[in-house]
Amino acid sequence: MPSPALKPCPFCGEDEEVSSPEGRNYGLFIRSTNGTYGNSDERWEFFDVECVKCGCSLSIGAPSRDEAIAAWNRRAGEETK
Ligand SMILES: [Zn+2]
């Protein structure tokens, strides 16, 4: 099932999702950060959303890509369930 689309940036209106922010001056980017716990092989990964164009980011550390998207898409005044 495809992930839901990112809503436009609330600050600058940017709405194009990019797969990499390197060398760009536009785009919405879902950044994943990962690593391992101490010396174990157990991995952790979390997701944030950045607007490359205006430099804002939602550093929420969501445990999944879809949850990061849902958090980015949340807007005051809109009902969420
Ligand atoms: Zn923006």
Tell me what you see in this structure:
- The protein is built from one helix and three strands.
- A three-stranded antiparallel β-sheet has the order 1-2-3, covered by helices on one side.
- By secondary structure, it is mainly beta.
- The protein has one domain.
- The chain has one helix spanning about 65-75, and strands spanning about 30-35, 45-50, 55-60.
- The mean pLDDT is about 95.
- It binds zinc ion.
Short overview:
It is built from one helix and three strands; from the N terminus they run βββα. It is mainly beta.
Question: Which helices and strands occur, and which strands form pairs?
Answer:
Elements: E1 28-36, E2 43-51, E3 57-62, H1 65-73
This protein binds zinc ion (ZN).
The site of zinc ion has 8 residues, from loops.
Q: What's the end-to-end separation, in Å?
A: 20 Å
SSE arrangement, N to C: EEEH
Q: Please count the beta strands (DSSP E, at least 2 residues each).
A: 3
- Average predicted local confidence, pLDDT: 93
User: What is the 3D form?
Assistant: globular
What's the story with the biggest beta sheet?
3 strands, antiparallel
User: What is the C-alpha radius of gyration, as a whole number of Å?
Assistant: 14 Å
**How many helices in DSSP terms?**
1
Name the structural class: mainly beta
